[in-house]
């Protein structure tokens, strides 16, 4: 195999690793690729394969092997290539995180972030912030954890990385879970689960199921908890992820304890403890010591032995304190207080209760709660405009409402009794735009100011659309979608939409979002589409079909300040001397392969 073929195979294996499928195959195939590459002549490729191999070992629970590989990469390649160094640091940080060396993990992530910041590597920054956020959560520094999670989430959204958005959404749910805000934890975990199921991320689905099952367990909904734990366990088995499977089994053991199936729980907990000891998973050992201690501490258990429970709890406490796992220490103080109360050792019970309350006040601080509330505010930002529209609509008659939210001809058809409006538009032109770097521009804005600025901008777009007989379809965040040729037909739909796009691009330069100028990216394509009404109580006029998807891809793959169009759309306007097209050549369009595209400009004589 030549180097280019090896790189393609490596890319395929990386995708499998992200999906979490057949890790053992990835491991063996990575070893085979490594044997084909000369470390001297192709050292960058050699280092990349080594990191892939290290990740495969990591996901298989082979931590020592993974650590050895990544330390080798850092020793031999970090001085040659900063990107390779940053990737290795992220991986080493994950290893430290897995082995509860949280301070060391954060140091690795911070070093990687410094490199990615210098190189302006957005994806690398997203990885770094996300992983650091997880370590801060495990340190019970929830305020900092949420801050880092927020940065990672914004970057993944900017990249359009659904798997990254899902992972971060789930991580935010995990923070709410350890803060005992179970309703919010479920809300975020279900959002993450939906995205992971959409992109078929099995590892993500399994992790979501673990937390969702945990929330249902806390709510005494044992049937639901069991179904989610079992699903997680099955997925980890499919992924050949022994560590993940043991995590799921540990949760099932807790469920069995809650259900007073003490013998089954003890057998399962001892199996998981044995695995943790074999893997030298100190954090996992502490968790299982607590689980087993809880079994012996339960008076309903025929094997109730409070002295033995105390022994397990004290061993676990030593480990949690050494690892600085403050949330675990806080929880264990409460359990020990309850145990000593049953043993009528009042002084010890009071001591541990005081320790629990003092530490709990530190962990669930006002600042952490404030950060958590900010997340909810940001998440609900898109809902504010819809709610405002609904409040206005309540004071208007049905006919006026329909004319406001639907094209006039469609509103009239509905008022005349049509309930199922679906039309095939044979020849239309579709427009998409969004604001470049919108997340960065608006990160410090409050929702009310943002909605006000966007409303001013989109109101101007609406005015221009009406001028050119273009139909606005919808706005999604900072994106604006419009069409010409439906519901009202226009033979010159391509030209009308071109003039609309030119005027929108020009007008946008006069607007400011926050304190920054607006820069648009626009995409256009022509073809056939399906148009119609969706919804029964809240109506929406929308378009579907390949033409819509391609127009969206034109915007997504475009550049700041440019209008990117397809070759088919260009052909509709050939002969118009006031419009100039500059070829971009062929670009890769998701779901379509290579397509010829063009930047459309207005002639200086226009």
Radius of gyration: 29 Å
Helix content: 55-70%
Task: Provide the residue-averaged pLDDT.
Answer: 86
Write down the CATH topology of the domain at 394-602: Alpha-Beta Plaits
Tally of strands: 10
- Seen as an oligomer or otherwise, the chain set is single chain
Keywords:
606 residues, alpha+beta, Alpha-Beta Plaits, two-stranded antiparallel sheet, globular
Short structural summary:
The chain has 606 residues and is of the alpha+beta class.
Explain the layout of strands and helices:
Blueprint: H1 3-19, H2 23-36, H3 43-59, H4 63-77, H5 82-98, H6 102-119, H7 122-138, H8 142-159, H9 162-178, H10 182-199, H11 202-218, H12 222-238, H13 242-258, H14 262-278, H15 282-297, H16 306-322, H17 326-342, H18 346-363, H19 366-379, H20 381-393, H21 398-405, H22 408-415, E1 422-435, H23 438-442, H24 447-467, E2 471-476, E3 479-484, H25 493-508, E4 512-513, E5 516-517, E6 520-534, E7 540-544, H26 546-556, E8 563-566, H27 567-573, E9 579-589, E10 593-602
Parallel strand pairs: 6-8
Antiparallel strand pairs: 1-3, 1-6, 2-3, 4-5, 6-7, 8-10, 9-10
């Amino acid at each position: 195999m030549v180097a280019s073929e090896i790189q393609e195979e490596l890319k395929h294996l990386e995708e499998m690793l992200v999906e979490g499928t057949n890790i053992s195959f990835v491991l063996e195939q990575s070893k085979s690729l490594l044997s084909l590459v000369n470390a001297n002549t192709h050292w960058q490729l050699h280092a990349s394969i080594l990191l892939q191999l290290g990740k495969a070992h990591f996901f298989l629970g082979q931590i020592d092997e993974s650590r050895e590989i990544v330390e080798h990469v850092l020793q031999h390649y970090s001085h040659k290539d900063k990107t390779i160094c940053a990737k290795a640091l992220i991986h080493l940080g994950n290893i430290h995180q897995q082995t509860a060396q949280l301070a060391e993990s954060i140091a690795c992530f911070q070093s990687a972030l410094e490199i990615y910041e210098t190189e302006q590597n957005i994806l690398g920054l997203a990885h770094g912030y996300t992983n650091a956020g997880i370590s801060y959560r495990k340190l019970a520094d929830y305020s900092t954890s949420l801050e880092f999670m927020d940065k990672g989430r914004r970057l993944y959204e900017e990249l359009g990385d659904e798997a990254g958005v899902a992972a971060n959404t789930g991580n935010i749910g995990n923070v709410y879970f350890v803060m005992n805000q179970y309703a919010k934890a479920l809300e975020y975990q279900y959002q993450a689960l939906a995205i992971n199921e959409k992109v078929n991320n099995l590892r993500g689905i399994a992790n979501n199921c673990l937390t969702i099952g945990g929330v249902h367990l806390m709510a005494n909904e044992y049937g639901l908890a069991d179904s989610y734990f079992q699903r997680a366990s099955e997925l980890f088995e499919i992924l050949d992820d022994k560590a993940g499977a043991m995590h799921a089994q540990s949760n099932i053991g807790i469920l069995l304890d809650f259900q007073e199936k003490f013998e089954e729980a003890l057998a399962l907990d001892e199996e998981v403890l044995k695995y943790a000891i074999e893997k030298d998973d100190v954090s996992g050992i502490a968790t299982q010591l607590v689980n087993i201690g809880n079994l012996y501490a339960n008076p309903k258990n025929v094997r109730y032995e409070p002295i033995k429970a105390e022994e397990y709890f004290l061993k676990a406490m030593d480990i949690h304190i050494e690892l600085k796992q403050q949330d675990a220490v806080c929880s264990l103080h409460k359990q020990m207080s309850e145990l000593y109360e049953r043993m009528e050792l009042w002084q010890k019970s009071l001591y541990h209760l005081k320790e629990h309350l003092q530490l709990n006040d530190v962990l669930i601080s006002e600042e952490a709660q404030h950060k958590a509330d900010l997340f909810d505010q940001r998440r609900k930002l898109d809902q504010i405009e819809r709610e405002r529209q609904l409040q206005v609509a309540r004071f208007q008659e049905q006919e006026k409402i329909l004319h406001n939210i639907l094209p006039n001809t469609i509103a009239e058809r509905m008022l005349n009794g049509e309930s199922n409006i679906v039309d095939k538009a044979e020849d239309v032109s579709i427009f998409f735009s969004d604001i470049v770097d919108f997340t960065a521009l608006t990160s410090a804005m409050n929702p009310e100011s943002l909605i006000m600025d966007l409303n001013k901008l989109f109101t101007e777009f609406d005015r221009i659309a009406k001028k050119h007989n273009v139909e606005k379809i919808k706005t999604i965040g900072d994106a604006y979608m419009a069409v010409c040729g439906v519901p009202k037909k226009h033979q010159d739909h391509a030209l009308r939409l071109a003039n609309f796009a030119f005027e929108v691009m020009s007008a946008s330069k006069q607007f400011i979002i926050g304190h920054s100028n607006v820069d648009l990216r626009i995409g256009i394509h022509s073809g056939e589409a399906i148009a119609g009404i969706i919804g029964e109580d809240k109506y929406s006029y929308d378009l579907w079909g390949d033409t819509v998807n391609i127009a969206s891809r034109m915007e997504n793959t475009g550049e700041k300040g440019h209008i990117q169009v397809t070759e088919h759309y260009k052909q509709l306007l050939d002969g118009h001397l006031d419009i100039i097209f500059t070829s971009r050549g062929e670009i890769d369009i998701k779901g379509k392969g290579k397509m010829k595209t063009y930047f459309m400009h207005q002639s200086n004589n226009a």
